[in-house]
Automatic annotation (TrEMBL):
<feature type="domain" description="DDE Tnp4">
    <location>
        <begin position="149"/>
        <end position="227"/>
    </location>
</feature>
<dbReference type="InterPro" id="IPR027806">
    <property type="entry name" value="HARBI1_dom"/>
</dbReference>
<keyword id="KW-0479">Metal-binding</keyword>
<dbReference type="Pfam" id="PF13359">
    <property type="entry name" value="DDE_Tnp_4"/>
</dbReference>
<dbReference type="GO" id="GO:0046872">
    <property type="term" value="F:metal ion binding"/>
</dbReference>
<keyword id="KW-0539">Nucleus</keyword>
<protein>
    <recommendedName>
        <fullName>Putative nuclease HARBI1</fullName>
    </recommendedName>
</protein>
<dbReference type="InterPro" id="IPR045249">
    <property type="entry name" value="HARBI1-like"/>
</dbReference>
<keyword id="KW-0540">Nuclease</keyword>
<dbReference type="GO" id="GO:0005737">
    <property type="term" value="C:cytoplasm"/>
</dbReference>
<dbReference type="GO" id="GO:0004518">
    <property type="term" value="F:nuclease activity"/>
</dbReference>
<dbReference type="GO" id="GO:0016787">
    <property type="term" value="F:hydrolase activity"/>
</dbReference>
<keyword id="KW-0378">Hydrolase</keyword>
<comment type="function">
    <text>Transposase-derived protein that may have nuclease activity. Does not have transposase activity.</text>
</comment>
<dbReference type="GO" id="GO:0005634">
    <property type="term" value="C:nucleus"/>
</dbReference>
<keyword id="KW-0963">Cytoplasm</keyword>
<dbReference type="InterPro" id="IPR026103">
    <property type="entry name" value="HARBI1_animal"/>
</dbReference>
């Protein structure tokens, strides 16, 4: 080439670009159910059904060759959710680089969360509530229970904004998650958006289910069984508090992404439970002490509890 200002010639060496090298991507559907259950917690047929359900949201139109298939995106994210290991290790198993795992995970989480209306539903009519009451009664002869409610802390890294609000009673940062389940341990409702410093009774009273119950969504003498002290909820006595089982480990993500991970796991839990997938035994942990109640117990809840105690 010629430099216009100096009127001189220079030579530029052009080095041909080498071909891009692509790693072999894993075909998870070729693995055995035992292998998949140990690493992804779902058998092959459920993985295929889930990937088909997620495909409309995860399939991307692109002119690039070798785009990530939906099964690779989905199974890689499920492997992370199931094991909690580092993204680089998941990438090595899937045959894709860690940055690709990081880029695809938010889309996969959003796609799984979009299935929540199909798999997580609080009983809204008398027939649904009657079936749940029957299941609870079969366990301990306790009548009219349509759900059990409690909260648990999921540890997370300190957020960059308002980190003090996420410090819980054991002095670590967490998201405080409220879960309502039926007698079969299926999740009926899940609230995963409150900082760890929030009181559990505040979460319930300001939740969608709390508002619905206040407006009379329960039929007959129906009630929830839990430790909050509010109307339409049967609280435990001081000598019968249940043990908590907080999730182990710490999520190294922002509060928003941490909440999305928790909600996606709730959907996957119900999918697995509905299809008879066996769950690994949970290791017990030390229970977390309770804060004093911010307000006096509701008189109606106390009367209902005493009436039930007299029945036994």
């Amino acid at each position: 080439c010629r430099l216009p200002a100096a009127g001189r010639w220079c030579f530029v060496a052009v080095v041909p670009r080498g071909n891009r090298v692509y790693r072999d991507r894993a075909d998870f559907f070729m693995e055995s159910d035992e292998w998949l259950l140990s690493r992804i917690r779902l058998p092959r047929h459920l993985l295929m059904e889930l990937c088909n359900a997620l495909e409309p949201q995860l399939r991307r139109e692109t002119r690039r060759s070798n785009a990530l298939p939906v099964p690779v995106q989905g199974c890689s994210t499920l492997g992370f959710l199931a094991t909690g290991t580092f993204q680089r290790e998941i990438g090595d198993r899937s045959g894709i680089p860690q940055p690709s795992i990081s880029r695809t995970m938010p889309a996969v989480l959003a796609a799984i969360m979009s299935l929540s209306e199909r798999y997580i539903n609080f009983p809204s009519n008398n027939d649904q509530q009657t079936g749940i009451k029957r299941d609870f009664y079969a366990i301990a002869r306790f009548p009219n229970v349509i759900g059990a409610v409690d909260c648990t802390h999921v540890g997370m890294k300190p957020p960059s904004i308002n980190d003090y609000a996420y410090i819980n009673r054991k002095s670590y940062h967490s998201v405080y998650v409220q879960i309502i389940c039926d007698a079969r341990m299926s999740i009926l409702n899940m609230v995963a958006r409150r900082p760890g410093g929030t009181h559990d009774s505040f979460i319930f009273q300001n939740s969608n289910v709390g508002h619905r119950l206040h407006q009379g969504a329960l039929h007959g003498q129906s009630h929830l069984l839990g430790e909050h002290r509010t109307k339409n909820l049967m609280s435990a006595t001081s000598t019968a508090l249940t043990r908590r089982c907080p999730a182990g480990g710490t999520l190294l993500y922002s509060p928003e992404k941490t909440c999305n991970i928790i909600l996606a796991c709730g959907v996957l839990h119900n999918i697995a439970l509905a299809n008879g997938v066996p769950f690994a035994d949970l290791q017990p942990v030390d229970p977390m002490s309770r804060d004093p109640w911010p307000q006096a117990p509701h008189a109606r809840a106390l009367r209902r509890r005493e009436d039930l105690i007299r029945l036994f």
